[in-house]
Amino acid sequence: MNSIIIFGVFVADLCFFGNKIPTRGETVLGNNHLVGPGGKGSNQAIAAARLEGNVKFITKIGKDSHAEMALSLYKEAGVDTASVIQDPSLSTGVAGIMIDENGHNAINIVAGAAGHLQNIDIDKNLDVIKDSKIFLTQMETPDLTTMYALKKAKENNCLTILNPAPARKIQKEDFSLLDFFTPNETEAEFYLNKKIETKEDIQNAAKEFLSMGVKNIIITLGAKGVYFENKEENYFIDALSLKDEVIDTTGAGDAFNGALAVALAKDSNYKDAIIFANKVGGISTTRLGAASSMPLLKEVEEY
Ligand code: ADP
Question: Which of 54, 142, 159, 265 to pair with 131, CA 20 to 30 A apart?
């Protein structure tokens, strides 16, 4: 099957649960602690591999226990780790997540090794990029390298997908590097600097992205599904009506993007690819966590 190359970040999520989030200078006694895999690129790689995509992941981690967690997870999911760079002089990225009894959180992310990804790391992987049909990335890696990677992917005839999360500034000229741009509503608002509330707002926003140079715009709308537009066609697709309760929407966007990459790698037409991604995103909300909520292909087919 055609390969998918994903460029992104892994961090270990260190979750501290307690009655309240401590304020400055305060110490609280918590009641639970969990360590789990995080990072949007990593979540998307796992999502795509669990859907039986042929996935290679470019990232940078250290040589510590968090790195071991990442590598064993990739082995289990079937992510090719030949392009995972291990630098023993750097620490694997971490996110310190404080969660109170109402589920509200406060997060401090230290990208660690992944914050040291450079253009040369892309250059070293040009052969892998050249052999891939799909290139997928997000906005957690250093900006200049993210855009450099997209440029190299385009030069090597990949179909590029940028999931702009977290939303960060993109230079005007770089939008034309994007075959697919997949913001959620909040991210779309950030780039257009205006509120998106009605269906008409969504359609107007999509047109603006196309005029900026994006070839295909997909705005994900959470429980409302998704909107697609390119020069030839446009449509809304309703969210999957779920058989199970929504438990945790964390990682829904990652599930969506990983699934989109897999379907496009299989040469599905765009509408079928979006319907598949919409289904996978929906299923992921019925399970707890991000990486752990990504469904297997068999589970998607049976749902
Ligand atoms: P993000 O997780 O990046 O904020 P969204 O919330 O837009 O992104 O979710 C991504 C996709 O996941 C949606 O377009 C939809 O396909 C699916 N999804 C999210 N929330 C739900 C839900 N409550 N019910 C069904 N599908 C959902």
Answer: 142
Active site residues: 254
Ligand 1 neighbour 134 (Cβ under 6 A): no
**CATH fourth-level superfamily of 3-9+40-86+115-302:** Ribokinase (3.40.1190.20)
Q: How far is the CA of 89 from the centre of ligand 1 (A)?
A: 38
Distance between Cα 246 and ligand 1 center (Å): 10
pTM of the model: 0.96
- Cα 296 to middle of ligand 1, angstroms: 18
User: Per-residue pLDDT tens for 262-289?
Assistant: 999 999 999 999 999 999 999 999 998 8
Nearby residues of 10 by Cβ (< 8 Å), 6 or more positions away: 37, 38, 39, 41, 42, 59, 61, 70, 92, 93, 114
Nearest atom in ligand 1 to 185's CA: 7
Domain boundaries, the chain: 3-9+40-86+115-302
Distance CA 255, CA 260 (A): 8
Confidence of residue 244 (pLDDT cuts 50, 70, 90): confident
Average confidence (pLDDT) over 174-187: 98
Q: Does ligand 1 lie within 6 Å of residue 249's CB atom?
A: yes
Contacts of 193 (CB under 8 A, 6+ apart): none
